[in-house]
Amino acid sequence: MSREQLIVAVVAGLCVALMAAVLPARAESEPVAPRASLLPLVRPLWSELTTAQQAVLEPFSQQWNGWSAQEKRVWVSLANRVPRMAPDARERAHERIREWAALTPDQRRLARQNYRLAKRLPPDERQAQWERYREMTPEQRSVLRNAGWTSNTAARHAGARTGLAKEAAQPLSDLARRGARRPPTPRPADF
After folding, report:
1. Could you list the residue range(s) of the whole structural domain that residue 69 is in?
2. What's residue 143's pLDDT?
3. Which of 57, 73, 159, 178 has the lowest tally of Cβ within 10 angstroms?
């Protein structure tokens, strides 16, 4: 291999390495446009729902055809029950459906996770926690809703606006909730 060929090979290798380093960083910073699913549409399609079902599930009209069969079954079942509900229960169901439709996928995931956690509690403990929640002031409820679960009781209930309280009120990761070891606290000698 001549010197010129060696230089060309090195330059080509550097170009490939540079492209490999730049393209992933660029891809992370650019918003990703949603792609059409490669999976066939799962029935029932929105157009196949009855008029009554469409009226109940209207907040989901744009998302419906992209959902799984299981998710659609649950919502169709609810849509079939809603017309038989008492008027106040029907209105409450419509309100909850609108609220659910307004949630982001992450918020829905968190709501499902919280529901599963609540279902694991014994009924008396779940009732006690509900009573504690109902005794909170509207401000405390707002702080709890905005902050999520936390082990810091003071931050959870005080509603303080300090930076430390905001940080302490952030939800703990699943790993921390399971009792993972905390990193050692720094000692004065480490400073």
Report:
1. 46-102
2. 83
3. 178
Q: Report which secondary-structure segment, H or E, holds 89.
A: helix 87-102
Residue type, 191: F
As a whole number, mean pLDDT of residues 167-171 equals 50
Residue 53 is assigned to a structural domain of this protein = yes
User: Which position has the token pair 């290798």?
Assistant: 13
Q: Does a structural domain hold residue 71?
A: yes
Domain boundary among the residues 57, 83, 102 is at 102
What CA–CA distance (Å, rounded) separates 104 from 50? 26
Please give the Cα distance from 134 to 99 (Å, whole number): 20
Query: Considering its fold, how many domains does the chain have in total?
Result: 2
Give the dihedral sign, CA 144/150/155/161. negative
Q: Quick one: residue 182, left, alpha or beta (phi over 0 = left, psi -120 to 50 = alpha)? A: beta
C-alpha count within 13 angstroms, C-beta hemisphere, residue 84: 5
Q: The whole model's pTM is what? A: 0.50
The one-letter code for the residue type at 64 is W
Share of the chain above pLDDT 70, in %: 56
Q: Do 16 and 45 form a contact (C-beta atoms < 8 A)?
A: no
